[in-house]
Amino acid sequence: MTKEFVSFVRDLYRTTNFIPLHAPIFQGNERKYVNDTLDSSFVSSVGEYVNKSEELMQSFTNSTKAIAVVNGTAALTISLKAIGVNYGDEVITQALTFVATANAIVHVGAEPVFLDVDYDTMGLSPMALESFLTEYAEIRGESTYNKKTGKKIAACVPMHTFGFPVKIDELVAICSKWNIPVLEDTAESLGSYYKGKHTGTFGTLAAFSFNGNKIVTSGGGGMVITDDITLGKHIKHLTTTAKIPHPYEFVHDEIGYNFRMPNLNAALLCGQLEQLENFLLIKRNIAVEYENLFKNSAIKFRTEKENSRANYWLMCVELDSLNERDNFLKETNDNGVMTRPIWKLLYKLTMFKNCYRDSQKSAEYLESRIVNIPSSVFS
Ligand SMILES: *Cc1c(COP(=O)(O)O)cnc(C)c1O
C-alpha cells in the first residue's frame, strides 16, 4: 500500500522532486498587493490592507469584529489576556495540539490543564471536560475555581485539529454552566464549519494563524475574531500599544503590546483570502482522491464527521499500530514524499511535564497512529 501511496502522490503533484506536506501558492493578486505597499511606502503599522484583511475575515467567518495580529501565538496570547486570564490561573486545553496553544497559556502566566480528546474529532472531548469539571470545579461568585488547587479556571481552549471541527456547541454549553469563557484555537480551521457555522464563532473569541504552512498565509500573521464589539475594540487597543488616538501626542492608558500585523503581510493575506474558496475546493477534491486510494486498505484516511465540514488543511491517515506507523513514515520519507506523525502529547515535553492531565486514552491512541500526508493546493 505504501508504494502505491508514494506513486499516487507523485502523480497528484506531477513531480519527481521532494514533496512537502504543505507549501503555499501565490497565483492571485498577491504580487500586485504587496507591490502596492512598497510603492505607497505603507509597509508597516498603518495601511489599508490591514483594514481590508480584517473586513475579509469578518465577512468570511460571519463575525462582527476581526483584529489582525503578528502571528497565531500572539492571537491566542492577546485573547487570553483580554478575557481576563491572569497569573496563577488554570486554562483547560488538549494535550494533542501544536505547542503554541499551551505556550500562549504560559505566556499570560497561567497553567495548562490537559484533558483528553475524542477519537472521532481529535479535539477536546466534551465528556472529559464534563467529568473534570464535575470532579474538580466549584463556582465562587462570578468565577469557577479548582477545589484541589484553589486556582481559578479562567478559560477553555479547544483546538480544531487539522481543520476537523470539535464538538464545539457541546463544549460551549458545558463551559457556560461554569462561567468559563471559551477561546477557540482556529489556527488550523479557516474554512471549516460546524452545523453550518464557521469554526471560531461559537466561543467568546477565536485565534487564527496565517503562518506559511496554513491554508492561507501572510508570511507570518494571525487574526482574532469575536462578536463582542467591546472586547474586540479592547483587543485592537491592546495590540496597538494601547495608544489613545491623538494627532501627535503619545498617551497610552495600559500596558500594551506591539502585536499588529504589518501592512506588507496584510497585503499578501488579502491576495490569499481572495482565493480561499478555490483552495477549499481543490483540497476537497484531493481528499476525495485519497479516500478512494485508501478504501479497502489497512490504512484509514480520516474524513470529516457528522455535522461538520472540514477544510482538509492538513490531511491525515491512521495506521493500525505504532510499528505500522513507523514503517509508513520511513518508507515515504525515504522516497521523498514527506509525511509526519501527529504531535507528541504536550505533557511529554519537559516544560509541561508537571501539568495536570486526565486519562488521555484517545490522545495516546491517536498519538501512536496518526500521520499527516501531503496536502498542498496545486494550480
Ligand atoms: C499554527 C498553530 C498555532 C500558532 O500559529 P503561529 O502563527 O505559528 O504562531 C497555534 N495553534 C495551532 C493549533 C497551530 O496549528
Task: Report what the structure shows.
- With 379 residues, the chain is an alpha+beta fold.
- The protein has 2 domains: 2-21 and 276-346 and 363-372, Alpha-Beta Complex (Aspartate Aminotransferase, domain 1), CATH 3.90.1150; 30-274, Aspartate Aminotransferase, domain 2 (3-Layer(aba) Sandwich).
- 37% of the residues lie in helices and 15% in strands.
- The protein has 12 helices and 16 strands.
- The chain has helices at residues 2-13, 30-40, 48-61, 72-82, 99-107, 126-136, 168-177, 229-239, 263-273, 276-294, 322-334, 361-367, and strands at 65-69, 90-94, 111-115, 137-140, 143-146, 153-157, 183-185, 193-194, 197-198, 205-209, 222-226, 300-301, 308-309, 316-318, 340-341, 370-372.
- The strands form 5 sheets. Strands 1-11-10-7 form a 4-stranded mixed sheet, sandwiched between helices. It has a 4-stranded antiparallel sheet with strand order 12-14-16-15. Strands 3-2-6 form a 3-stranded parallel sheet, with helices on both faces.
- A hairpin with a 2-residue loop joins strand 4 and strand 5.
- Helix 3 runs parallel beside helix 9.
- The radius of gyration is 21 Å and the shape is globular.
- 49% of the residues are buried.
- The mean pLDDT is 97.
- Pyridoxal-5'-phosphate binds at residues 71-73, 97-98, 100-101, 159, 185, 187-188, 209, 211, 222.
